[in-house]
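Pipeline run #58 for the internal structure catalog. This entry was flagged by the ingest filter as a single-chain record with no existing model, so it goes straight to prediction. Upstream metadata was stripped on purpose; only the residue string is passed forward. Reviewer on rotation: M.T. Logging verbosity set to normal.
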Amino acid sequence: MPKMSGAAVLIKSLEYEGVEVAFGVPGGAILPAYDPLLDSPIRHVLARHEQGAGHMAEGYAHATGRVGVVIVTSGPGATNIMTPLQNALMDSVPIVAITGQVALSSMGNDAFQEAPTTGMAMHCTKHTFLVTDANEICDVVHQAFHLASTGRKGPVLIDIPKDLLVTEIEWHEPGPVDLPGYKPSRAGHSRQIERAIDLIMEASQPVLYVGGGIIAAGASEELLQFAEALDVPVTTTLMARGAFPDAHRLAMGMPGMHGTYTAVTAMQEADLLIALGTRFDDRVTGNPATFAPGAKVIHVDIDPAEIGKVRNPEVPIVGDVRVVLEQLVSALGVRLGDESLPDRSHWLETIAGWQAKYPLSYQQEPDGPVKAQYVIEQLLEATGGDCIVVSGVGQHQMWASQFWSFSKPRTWINSGGLGTMGFAVPAAIGAKVGMPDELVVAVDGDGSFQMTFQEMVTASTEKVPIKVVLINNGGHGMVRQWQTLFYGRRYSATDLSGDSPNYAALAEACGWVGMMVETPDDVGPALRKMLSTNDRPVLLEIRTDPDEMVWPMVPAGGSCSDIALGPEDL
């Protein structure tokens, strides 16, 4: 086989892994890799900032379930993707980041655009590789994709010195992955499965507490089968929205700080939590010491480090949640051949009563300021729910999760664990690139949008026709909400001036269609016009009530038993 440059081997290795698209920004140290890209079938999407490129790779991975790829240069290029890497780590998103590095001989000399990339990335990735021999490139790329896409999925970084990219070597097909110590469990231990069934058969007030691991494992169908077999109510975390259909009679919506009253209260009153692919996040539990005080716990997770980290379970099960659910359904079927499920009709009636008494609500006055919740409901009606919704971070994110009715997985993309403002626009671009035939709508806030709106140019030049519904309340709404409730209305550094920039004009300048409305009657028609425009991206700015707050609310560090339905409850 003729020799080729390390850069050509890198691109050929990506092709071998089935990569169809990569997001990135070139620069000096990675420049050799951009030359063979010209001859590769891999599509390269040129972002306007490396952070945007990283979030695009995340959006692509969220929407498709495949590994997202981001390619950037050394120094500032590498430091700019640390936020997407940490974001992907927190939310278990499979991406591979390839960074250029200064030549081996220059490392440690404070060379131009040098940064200790692997050291910085070590704590915000699943694993990092520093390539020191060009002949390792094929195998390292193969190992990186294996690590990113197996076990608890997550980001992996490959740092490659520039001199290795220009070294002449032979490409070889990578051998079997052999990573000592890395052998993720797939099946749950049979004895633990039986113990779990014992607890399930004893429980009178069980709750299925479902996390994003269900979506990562592709286990939504198994979850539905399990929930229906048990007749147990289901709550889906922020990262699990869509894992279980909201229209189902057993669905209770989202738990946690801004969850539904029913979901939060049911968990507090439960005698058994069946936790599936979830990590007992503080935004769900509130004060862990007071969370679900009377509940025994079955905790299923592929990552053994998550089990017992916050709550010690009575039955820990390490394994792929899809495989474990199959085991549980099978074991349950055997058990039900000998005995019947407990009568839980009273529990289900109690939950139905909470749902009827404490639904999510808001008041939209016909001539009053537009409420963001109304926008979400109007968007849901206009699309029929048939689209991928991507959100930024803030109040609009909570309202979108609350008031959208999700019916299937991978239709909700957001930044959960890290809460990264600026996520929506680039992630929506990545999602649309990965799923070009799907409608992709970003619901963003003005504060979040201003973090990364330069990627509007990327959407225009790359012909990625996403839609953005911009909820403009003129400030950092969630911060303002906390200042209203806990800081005596002392509004420090939250005013963004709703009139600057002119978002519709900005959109037009970037090659988009730009629109703005500020009355309730105009929201529906404007949304329908936005949805009918498909030849280029569209931004619809909607001026909304700056004083509207997200309810229900569990104050940070408080008890979920003290959930507030409005300011009068705090």
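catalog note: The chain has a mean pLDDT of 97.
catalog note: The longest strand covers residues 95-101.
status: ready for reviewer M.T.
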